[in-house]
Amino acid sequence: MFFPRTILSLMLLIIPTSLFPQAKPVTSTSTVMSAQRLAETNCDCKNAIKININKVTTYGLTRPPAGAGVINEIGVNSKSNKFNFEEEHNSSWYLLNIHFDGEFVFEIIPQDSSNDYDFLLYKYTDTSFCNALVKKALKPVRSNLSRSNLAIKGYTGLSTDAKDEFVGQGVKEEWSRSIQVTKGDKYVLVLDNVYPNGLGHTIKFNYIKQVTISGMVVGSDSLPLKAEVVLNDNNGAPLKEIITGNDGKYSFTVGLKENLNYSIVFSSDSSFIAANTINTTQLLKTKSFTDIKTVLPRLKKGEKYKIYSINFYGDTAILLPESYPSVEALYKLMKKNKKMFIRIEGHVNGSGRERDPSFNQNLSDRRAQTVSNYLTSKGIEPERIKTIGFSDKMMVYPNPKNEKEASANRRVEINVLSIE
Phi/psi at 134 (nearest 5 deg)? Predict the structure, then answer.
């Protein structure tokens, strides 16, 4: 599953109204819909909101869907029917125009996680589509009618990890299997919130492209090293785990989504961890990420190790989601090396505006403590860990030119005090 959190650009297309004669085309483009400017919903098929799906597309936050509209296209169906809602409660209709070839996925994100959003996805035929639907002459290509799962905040949608194309009612899998699409395809997506007086939703559309990732891991002596390689998504969830060969080489094929940062964490029992970032901004043009050379330095007493992948949100001691795989790898390393004692050193980005020096010092202290708390919560003995904050005295980029460099300043480093 994938639980992305960054709101991406809203990209909408006016499709000729002859497809749905009474439709009201969406013409605005926005990055985030505020509470004062909610995206429209429509409860009838013939007035479906038209969305151009071009790479990564986000629609919402929407107005709350209210009712089944003028025409109840779904009708009444058996509870055991996994191809239809039992009935249409509070529906939202969308006409999706696909602008890429690939594996199509999306997330439906309720504003209120207690709302229960079901969905049906149909392949659009022609202008007779809505009438054919009323006559029950069409079958969806995907469906999910599962009860809302509060543990994942009520999310549902299409996922590359899901096994079933159609999921019926009850406590079942929240995700249905992704679908292969071709540029020029059109689909009709209908959402139904079972509960009245609910809130709106956001839909994040994306696609999966299979790419090859390969490289080589070596030690400080430049000799091949057998190591664990873990690819993680932008939320820190592992996607692929592999062990390099004795020659230090690895290669695997995996499905990635557009415009995200993925992290690869490398670890070995007697070496310190390392991490690389894979950015998929140009995924449509990318066939592979190859020749990734990674050096894992040998563990030594008194050695300070920089991990550029353990970073924080600005002005907070809250780890970025993509930082957790590296912290987890640090935990595993300490678990395997029982006599490894460390000092966690916190840093802040002090560039850009004046702040009370005590704020920076306190923040760097708390960042170090955040990582320490994670390790001890997993069972690492507190006496094996010391913490210290260095405020903004040791910024990697004293004058950061962009957010990437500023983020690199919001970090912790690890000083190995003992390894015997």
Answer: -60, -35
pLDDT value of residue 355: 76
Residue 120: the pLDDT is: 97
Q: Is the pTM of this model over 0.70?
A: no
Q: CATH 2.60.40.10 occupies which residues in the chain? A: 207-298
Write out pLDDT tens, residues 315-359: 999 999 889 999 999 999 999 999 999 999 999 998 766 778 899
> Does CATH number 1.10.150.20 belong to domain 207-298?
no
Sheet of 49-53, strands arranged across: 49-53, 91-98, 186-193, 117-123, 142-146, 166-170
Contact 86, 78 (CB under 8 A): yes
Say which CATH class 299-420 falls into.
Answer: alpha beta
Which residues of the chain are in CATH 3.30.1330.60 domains? 299-420
